[in-house]
Amino acid sequence: MNQHVTPRTGFTACPHDCPSTCALEVEILAPNRIGRVRGAEGNSYTAGVICAKVARYAERVHHPDRLLKPLQRVGAKGEGQWREIGWDDALDLVAEKFLAAEARYGSEAVWPYYYAGTMGLVQRDGINRLRHAKRYSGEFGSICTNLAWTGFVAGTGRLAGVDPREMAQSDCVVIWGTNAVATQVNVMTHAVRARKERGAPIVVIDIYDNPTMKQADIALKLRPGTDGALACALMHIGFRDGTADRAYLAQYGDDPAGLEAHLQSRTPEWASAITGLSVEEIEGFAALIGRTKRTFFRLGYGFSRQRNGAVAMHAALSVPTVYGHWQHEGGGAFHNNGALWRFDKALIEGLGDEDTSIRYLDQSRIGAVLTGDKGALAGGPPVTAMIVQNTNPANVAPEQRDVVRGLRREDLFVAVHEQFMTDTARLADLVLPAATSMEYDDIYRGGGQSHILFGPKLIDAPETVRTNHFVVEELAKRLGVADRPGFGMSERELIDDLLRRSGYEGLAHLEAERWLDVQPGFKEAHYLAGFATADRRFRFRVDWASLSAPDRPPESMGLLGPVEKLPSFPDHAALIEDADAEHPFRLATPPARQFLNSTFAETEGSRKREGKPELKMHPDDATRLGLADGQRVEIGNRRGDIVLALKIDAATKPGVLIHEGLWPNGAFERGEGINVLTGADPAAPFGGAAFHDNRVWLRAL
Questions:
Q1: pLDDT digits 0-9 by tens, 304-318
Q2: Are residues 119 and 258 both part of a single domain?
Q3: Least confident piece of the model among 175-189, 202-216, 367-381, 483-497
Q4: Burial letters for 355-385: b for 16+ Cβ neighbours within 10 Å, e otherwise?
Q5: Which of 11, 61, 199, 422 has its CA 20 to 30 A from that of 228?
């Protein structure tokens, strides 16, 4: 007789690379099985809402294709021939290969490679403890945030802004450079509340009619990479019409007179020619924010996807400063709360063993690194051994052909610790099955909000999978560094240490509370005591080369990209990969609603809802070229070419192509994904990959 078990509710946090970091309530059906996942109603930011992807999280945890046993390659790389191997033998093999690489070329020949498949601080960042103890090559994390963070800090001096929950108190919400409906649904929770309760219009600024644009009261569709021009015209109008807050600028701006003089020529007509917006659209938006003191600018990660993104972010951030919006509840700007946490990860990351003389390798340039580019290798030895956790570079990294070619090297040993057989795992020598966030303890903090959250182990993992923490610990034993600080501690011990050395109460308190809200008060969040710069003033005039920012490369790497071409005042920086005669289209590759980078692309529910890889083209372009809906087309540039089905859609602008992803490489006709077309050249001033900034040619097949 089957005994009925009453489900219970567990409390955790979403582990994924999303600014929302939702507090979750999870239905636990059995010791090893979850059911429904909901947003925690008691959390003031999550407010009971989560995205459709995470609502279906049980589909991922209990997926029939989930990796369950260690596998060793027996055929050629990428052929898919494997044999099962025990965990002890697998970890012995990793240690053997690492030691052999070290003996031949030195410790820098080993490159632990990771990113944000989980945002948990123990399971994500613990790999650095092994890196530092063994003096392996460093990783400069450049693939996501650099341009946006740098541009924000250029103005405020600090990566923090207005409490994002204040959107609900706004009289106008501007969502700029983020498709929040698809990528951070909680932004919409608070924005829609302002519309319902206060009649606040929602203004969305983006490059195509995505789901967020479709919910806008005012939708401004720019040409890609022209945000800075719009921002300059808005400020020009503010000075011209007297809606700029001159008293505020005199108290809080570094050089408002110089800014005003600089903007004299940045007229709406000038911006219209660059952005593709009409003069009337620009004037109307400026008038709205000029008369609406409680205007909230929610600035997104789209700024990190263009080569001029740092300048564009700084220009957009300057708009609420010129208009004095920061002074008012529901007004000002927000991007990320990275400066709030003050986390000391000394034991988690083994920072006491960090050696600044060890080279750093650029995460975004993994293709160049693995194919032996001397500059990318910083003059050091080749990388001949890797362990990959929490990322899928064969799919998500730019210049995909080089990445895949590098991973196929026979002299390169690659171990991939993963939950599914990703594109990267298929090219590995050894695949290790990984636990999900429901199966271990970790701690999280919200980039897009202000909560520290504990994510406890809710269910038992399958017997044959292991956590990231386990793998790091076991390799340390085999590599002779298990006596170094931080090793030999459980996840809970590391979390407790992190909290206490960072000035918080310990884990017991966090676990009892479920989350801690560290949002500062109104005056600090709105910079009413001055901005976090040396003179306490907002920087309109920026010295990019000397700027201190969270994503600044280590001294050994220096500045990255054409820093000398960055303007000192807000402007349109013509550094984008613009269309030309040979490449008449701009290609952008924004997120799909049902995927999160390459995560969830393996689940049937997400793939069914997305349909298939397509290329959106404006009807005018299709008519001019004689193309039909559904037709196969080839697009390409100097980096490569791929085939896609055409989707004729007025959501795009003429001259702009949109592909929503990331789809697995195998979903494409030739087995190569969209990042074949994406460049890995570093963007100024501190690097970053410009995923939405590609020029391409197109031809019918």
A1: 999 999 999 999 999
A2: no
A3: 175-189
A4: eeebbbbbbbbbbbbbbeeeebbbeebbbbb
A5: 199
pLDDT at 428 over 70: yes
The number of helices, as runs of H, and strands, as runs of E, in the chain is: 26, 25
User: Mean pLDDT, the chain, as a whole number?
Assistant: 95
> Is the CB of residue 220 less than 8 Å from the CB of residue 226?
no
Q: Is 590 left (phi over 0), alpha (psi -120 to 50) or beta?
A: beta
Angstrom distance (rounded) from CA 3 to CA 475: 42
- Spatial distance between the Cα atoms of 228 and 250, rounded to a whole number of angstroms: 23
Q: How far apart are CA 111 and CA 376, in angstroms?
A: 13
**How far is it, in rounded angstroms, from Cα 360 to Cα 568?**
29
In this prediction, residue 1 carries a pLDDT of 38
Asked if pLDDT for residue 3 goes beyond 60, the answer is: no
Please count the structural domains in the chain: 3
Q: How confident is the model at residue 598 (pLDDT cuts 50, 70, 90)?
A: low
Given 517, 546, 561, the domain boundary residue is 517
Specify whether 390 is located in the same domain as 317: no
Query: CA-to-CA distance for 436 and 61, rounded, in angstroms?
Result: 7
Do 192 and 220 belong to one domain? Answer: yes
Which residue, among 644, 631, 651, 628, has the nearest Cα to 676 in the 3D structure? 644
Note whether 83 and 187 are same-domain residues.
no
Structure tokens at 27: 């239905």
Domain housing 615: 585-700
CA dist list (Å): 266 to 34, 539, 649: 56, 19, 32
**What gap in Å lies between CA 159 and CA 177, rounded to an integer?**
17
- What torsion, rounded to 10 degrees, do the Cα atoms 603, 604, 605, 607 define? 90
- The dihedral over CA atoms of 251, 254, 258, 261, expressed in degrees to the nearest 10, equals -50
Residue 502 to residue 515: CA distance in whole angstroms: 16
Q: For 213, what's the count of Cα atoms within 13 Å in the CB-facing half-sphere? A: 14
Residue 604's pLDDT band (boundaries 50, 70, 90)?
confident
> What is the Cα–Cα distance from 593 to 645, expressed in whole angstroms?
19
Helix axes 87-105, 468-479, angle to 10 degrees: 50
- 48 falls in which pLDDT band (50, 70, 90)? very high
Name the one residue in this structure whose structure tokens are 């340039």.
365
For the domain that residue 688 is a member of, what is the CATH number? Answer: 2.40.40.20
Q: Are residues 138 and 279 in the same domain?
A: no
Residues 195 and 96 placed together within one structural domain of the fold: no
Residue 596 has pLDDT above 90, yes or no: no
> Residue 601, Cα to own-chain centre: how many angstroms?
17
Flag whether 557 is in a domain: no
